[in-house]
UniProtKB/TrEMBL annotation:
The keyword Oxidoreductase applies. It comes from Hamadaea flava. The keyword Mitochondrion does not apply. Pfam families: ABM (PF03992). This is Quinol monooxygenase. GO terms for molecular function: monooxygenase activity.
């Protein structure tokens, strides 16, 4: 996923676990939080669990280049390689230019 924006980028979406895979998916998603927060250009990285069992990720990145670097990291590539085993369908993902100032 890319956008032509030079400013902050917001990336967010929902992931649904296959039946019986919620615990594994929850753990694998949680394992992404701290490493992702440490990647250059990360402004925010949050994981939520919805009452219906879906997982919601919200990320803010300083620029598209920072998001591209994050997407190329080993930790994310490993997650994406194994995700289809645990996901019921693909991720429902959205991204766009951040129009309000990032918090912090």
């Amino acid at each position: 996923m890319t956008t032509s924006s030079a400013g902050p980028i917001a990336l967010y979406g929902f992931l649904t676990a296959k039946p019986g895979h919620a615990d594994v998916l929850r753990r694998r998603l949680a394992d992404l939080v701290e490493p992702s927060r440490g990647h250059e250009g990360n402004l925010q990285y949050h994981l939520h669990e919805q009452s219906d069992g879906r997982f919601f990720l919200y990320e803010q990145w300083r620029s598209q280049a920072d998001l591209d670097r994050h997407n190329a990291t080993e930790v994310l590539r490993e997650f994406l390689a194994e995700a289809p085993e645990h996901l019921d369908g693909g991720p429902e993902a959205y991204f766009g230019e951040l129009l309000s100032s990032p918090v912090g």
